Amino acid sequence: MKGSAGAPEQDDALHAYQDSPGQQIRHAMQKKIDPHLYRTDKASYDDYFRNYERLFAPLADRKIHLLELGISHGGSLELWRDYFRKGTIAGIDISEIRIDDPSGRIHVYRGLQQDAALLDRARAETAPDGFDIIIDDCSHIGEFTAMSFWHLFDNHLKPGGLFVIEDWGAGYMKGWPDGKAYVPSRSVTSMRSRLRPYVEKVVLHPSVAGRPLVKKAVQALMNRLVTMKIRSHMQGIVGFVKQLVDEAGMDDITNPEWGTPPARPSKFKSMTISHGQVVIEKAGEPREKVPRHSGVKKRKASGGRGI
Hints:
7-stranded mixed sheet, about 300 residues, alpha/beta, single chain, 7 strands
């Protein structure tokens, strides 16, 4: 307020308030990403950035370390540099990418996303304590995505860190190296509902009451219908994402009462799937706790280049 320059106590209190975690977070949550100002394909997907704004707002003014696999022209690294004004930004691409970065906070590596030694080097040189955020916008090939995901997730992502897999729908593209066109499978539910009236008539028919073998056979048919597999598209990176769902359910998979030992919790604190994005939060407490903020809404071909 004008005229208060002679009150240092008030100035100190005002600065303390402005620098408080609550104010920093409120300021960060007002920050917007405008991908159209950068040379990146992310500008083509508005929903990506609505999701990223929700995910990254609490981290915008923190000293985060971010790694992106597949950076094309490098525009996305410049975007993250400007959004995370205190952040260190690293990127890996199969092509040689040169970025004019006066800040010195962008680090670019050339190589394949499945090269574990290169991933180790990027972490050692740019994020000695681990990455807070990792984004895979690279090959979108299931095998390569799986290799880099598990190496980075297990070894180089901080507890509480975020791992984003982009463009997982490539597994539905018949022209993609490991993709395949989606073919709807026959619905088990509809099959069961069509057969159920006939089965119930047989079970309730007076002639069956005194014929336990027939009744047992009909019951076996009902059990067969209930336990039929629900088929699903498992091609390429789509199949890998569905494998990650298994990891999310690891508490049940290894449950001592009905699962397969040894019992262990999931490595994921949460897993959210939306169009084109899978967001996984690593289990464990982050180094710097921040108030939780919801992530994304519930519901191009080489080993190292984004498209």
